[in-house]
Specification:
mainly alpha, Rhopdopsin 7-helix transmembrane proteins, two-stranded antiparallel sheet, 4 strands, 77% helix
Length: 299
């Protein structure tokens, strides 16, 4: 693997290609995504309508994306130079990032369910949103905070390659497998299944009603599903790979070493794609809700 040699704190270490590429991409995400999400937030607040629930979802989505992107400068520095900020900030930062990422997933999932209900159960949604709208939004944030809580225990500072790093450091293999499996199921498999089911039902309804009856909207709905899948799937593949390597550590040491090397080479890049999703969202979702708002039912 290609290395860039440098020195820091009187210790020699190297940046591998994955670190350099991940840092570059994260930097671009920060430069593009932060002003993009701020523009979405300002635009929605400037034209805020209490009866438009889709705008509220996009507003909360933009806020969670913005908060996650604001952590990137610290993450980039840590990726290249190590963690110099202590144990508690390490746990706090990891928890905050996961809170924002889980909120992102939950808001996208809620958006899909909302559109499904608006199309197929219009009156039911009208009754629900009048009394439970704020409860739904607050519940998504609370649930995201609960789902992210295992990271408080599993993340810590460790010495690695002459550097102190902030990374997941579970006390036992069982704890590591449980945390990773829960993260993949609750953060991807279940939300994506709900999202895909909702949009599949919507697609069937598109052909039977004038609601959503244009190619632009069909493309936007498809892009929401595709973007979520493409940019989140690799990170969860890495989680499954981590689980596999953990389970094979003692029984298959040769396979374990091979998988571990692949994990080291691809892990940083795969998990960087999650932040690209936060960078793309202000452009994608800012347009995605517009056709819906043209219907007779404010959403």
């Amino acid at each position: 693997m290609y290395h860039l040699n440098t020195s820091y704190s009187n210790s020699t270490f190297s940046w591998n290609t994955g670190q350099v590429v991940a840092s570059f991409v994260l930097g671009l995400c920060c430069l593009v995504g932060v002003p993009g999400n701020i523009a979405v937030i300002v635009g929605i607040l400037h034209n805020y309508k209490k009866e438009n629930f889709t705008r509220k979802l996009i507003l909360n989505l933009a806020i969670s994306d913005l908060l996650s992107l604001l952590t990137l400068p610290v993450s980039i520095y840590s990726l290249l130079h190590g963690w110099d900020f202590g144990q508690f900030p390490c746990k706090l930062l990891s928890y905050a990032v996961y809170c924002c990422l889980y909120t992102n997933v939950l808001m996208v999932t809620l958006m899909s369910v909302q559109r499904y209900l608006v199309v197929l159960y219009k009156q039911c949604w009208a009754r629900l949103r009048r009394t439970r709208e704020m409860v739904l939004l607050v519940s998504m944030w609370v649930l995201a905070c609960l789902l992210a809580s295992p990271n408080i225990l599993s993340w810590d500072t460790v010495d690695k390659n002459n550097l102190r790093m902030c990374q997941r450091s579970p006390r036992t293999d069982e704890e590591k497998v449980a945390v990773l499996l829960g993260e993949t199921l609750l953060g991807f498999v279940i939300p994506f299944s709900i999202l895909l089911t909702s949009y599949f039902c919507l697609h069937k309804k598109v052909n039977q009603t004038t609601f959503f009856n244009n190619q632009r909207t069909t493309w936007l709905v498809t892009s929401i599903v595709a973007t979520f899948f493409i940019l989140w799937f690799p990170a969860h593949v890495i989680n499954i790979l981590d689980i596999t390597t953990t389970l094979l550590r003692t029984s298959q040491p040769t396979v374990y070493e091979k998988l571990k090397r692949f994990r080291r080479a691809s892990g940083d890049i795969a998990k960087t794609l999650v932040f690209i999703n936060s960078c793309v969202n202000p452009f994608l979702y800012a347009f995605a809700y517009r056709p819906v708002c043209r219907s007779s039912e404010p959403v």
